[in-house]
Design goal:
The chain is mainly α. The protein contains eight helices and no strands. The radius of gyration is 19 Å and the shape is elongated. About 25% of the residues are buried.
Length: about 170
């Protein structure tokens, strides 16, 4: 059972690592597309950097998924080495992972309104006139079409593997 749980945790870790890998590979193209859209709208391209908006693998888009994957890998190892003490740790780690993934999913679903609200709070008239939906669509076009499938598969893996980790002890 512990091998199964560890395998599920490592699959979740892999799903989280997919985020910075894709951003590292295609983020520059996405950023270029976003800059082109900003130029089309007559907005300075530096607004992205000035407001911490990135499409590459920098910042929290890398360190957070890598940290989560590292914690999951350590938890998987703990399951294999100290199996009798692992159930509580599994519940704590998986509960946090589920909460984080829910926040990521919410962020994905509300990206346009969230960016629009963030820009409005700045009080910058140039930011306020940005067509955020067009900006995000342009950035999205910098990623291959299969990234959308990967994003959804990632959520399915995280939610289903997490459920299996939590249910496994009851099924044993």
């Amino acid at each position: 059972m512990n091998v199964f749980i560890a395998a599920m945790q490592l699959s979740i870790a892999s799903a989280f690592v997919s985020i910075p890998v894709v951003r590292a590979r295609f983020g520059t193209t996405a950023t270029s597309a976003a800059h082109a859209e900003l130029r089309r709208q007559g907005v300075r391209t530096t607004v992205l950097e000035e407001n911490g908006m990135r499409f590459d693998a920098g910042g929290h888009e890398t360190w957070a998924p890598v940290l989560i994957a590292t914690v999951l890998a350590a938890t998987a190892a703990f399951n294999l080495i100290w199996s009798s003490s692992a159930p509580l740790l599994n519940w704590v780690v998986i509960a946090l992972v589920l909460a984080i993934n829910c926040a990521i999913l919410y962020s994905n679903l509300t990206a346009t309104s969230s960016v629009r609200a963030a820009f409005s709070r700045k009080g910058d008239s140039e930011l306020a006139r940005i067509d955020v939906a067009a900006l995000l669509k342009a950035a999205e076009s910098g990623f291959p079409r299969w990234v959308w499938v990967l994003q959804n598969a990632r959520h399915v893996i995280v939610f289903s593997a997490s459920a299996l980790v939590l249910a496994a002890p009851a099924l044993a």
